[in-house]
């Protein structure tokens, strides 16, 4: 079961890479090119790491059970790019972008330590990692979103959707960890692999599509030709 899900990961990420790669090549302007390129590398990194796992690399017996520690290599390389999807779309300031990337790196390093440390000490590191994640939640839900909405007043809903989807997907990772054999062992390693693979596909390929959709929304909101039409719609909407 584990093996099948790892190959599903390989195929999904490879297809994502091809799609985003062609998109980057055919992009109509630099903003689209940057976004497609970010998503291309996110999927490419994941495809390579899933291939390694499917071929039995990056897995060692740690604390008496086979542990795919190489996942953390994937996450450490790809999650900063996912955050750059967000900060690029929101035209986020450098200090806030740096804070997000720093908290993310801290969360993953401490999560890795939690994964390779024996219980119960691992739970201390898990709590530390979750604290770093809560910092990310705060940064995205508050300063990031507020600044992005201020810069794109017509696209508030687009940023709310982006942040909500991002946080829902990312919150499921620590939940899977704590319920998996790494934590309370409420399900098997095969199920753990299935959950992580599905989450990775949703948060990389799926989120890539959402980021492109968001840029489309932002562009439509700034097109001068649509201004009058939009203001009419908004005006009309308020009367209902």
From TrEMBL:
Gene3D superfamilies: Rhodopsin 7-helix transmembrane proteins. InterPro entries: Arc/bac/fun_rhodopsins (IPR001425). One of its GO terms (biological process) is phototransduction. The chain crosses the membrane at residues 6-24, 36-62, 68-89, 96-117, 123-141, 162-179. It is found in: Membrane. It holds the Pfam family Bac_rhodopsin. One of its GO terms (molecular function) is photoreceptor activity. Keywords: Chromophore, Membrane, Photoreceptor protein, Receptor, Retinal protein, Sensory transduction, Transmembrane, Transmembrane helix. One of its GO terms (cellular component) is membrane. Its main location: membrane. It is a multi-pass membrane protein. PANTHER family: BACTERIORHODOPSIN _OPSIN, NOPA (EUROFUNG), PTHR28286. Belongs to the archaeal/bacterial/fungal opsin family. This is Proton-pumping rhodopsin chloride pump.
